[in-house]
Amino acid sequence: MASGGLQLLGFVLAFLGWIGIIISTAMPQWKMASYAGDNIVTAQALYEGLWMSCAMQSTGQIQCKVYDSLLKLEGNLQATRALMVAAILLGLVAIFTAVTGMKCMKCMEDDQVKKMRMAVFGGVIFIIAGMAALVATSWYGNRVARAFYDPFTPVNTRFEFGSALFIGWAAASLALLGGALLCCSCPRQETSYPPTRGYPKNAPSTGKDYV
User: Fold this and answer.
1) Where are the residues of the annotated region Disordered (predicted)?
2) Total structural domains in the chain?
3) Is residue 58 part of a domain?
């Protein structure tokens, strides 16, 4: 029963992490304009994401523009996109795989060994998805930090971490933790030894010798 609760907890955490990865991928706030120094801009906030760039005016109006051409984008941005999309697809596969191996589900009840393996396999896929999202967000954040501290970067083009990066880091951590719990939720099989054979006891000697 305890392993079933641990399995359910791992699945819930990994599922929430997968939802967070989707939200982080869709958000345009991967980096936001920095207002350090004497930077004067007409917009209240400037954001850039994986798919579009947005500007929020001082009146509260938000204008977004989708990137025109895929071929004109930087290779780093294209790689980040690919990693995040791969994390979403892997998470979808992990959900179906882990649900099949959940103890609370009726699937594959006749073969408990295969059922446990499906749950563990789903946890492994969740871990791979979390690693892909963690690499993508960390790589993107490293580029933002390096550009910010680069003395050759103009002040009015410097960016800071956006909220989508923090959501992505949290989501990747949840996916990794949930996947690890799914992998550890299966009870260990105890080694069974064959029962010892009893040997017949010698009949007590009556003291009489037979010829």
Assistant:
1) 192-211
2) 1
3) no
Return d(Cα 171, Cα 186) in angstroms, integer: 24
Q: Which domain holds residue 19?
A: 4-27+75-184
Confidence (pTM): 0.80
Tell me whether residue 141 is in a domain: yes
Q: State whether residue 200 is helix, strand or coil.
A: coil
Residue 52 to residue 46: CA distance in whole angstroms:
11
**Residues of the chain with confidence (pLDDT) below 70:** 1-3, 35-43, 104-112, 185-211
What interhelical angle do 2-26 and 163-184 show, nearest 10?
Answer: 160
Within a domain: 37: no
Among residues 143, 145, 136, the alpha carbon closest in space to that of 164 is found at 136
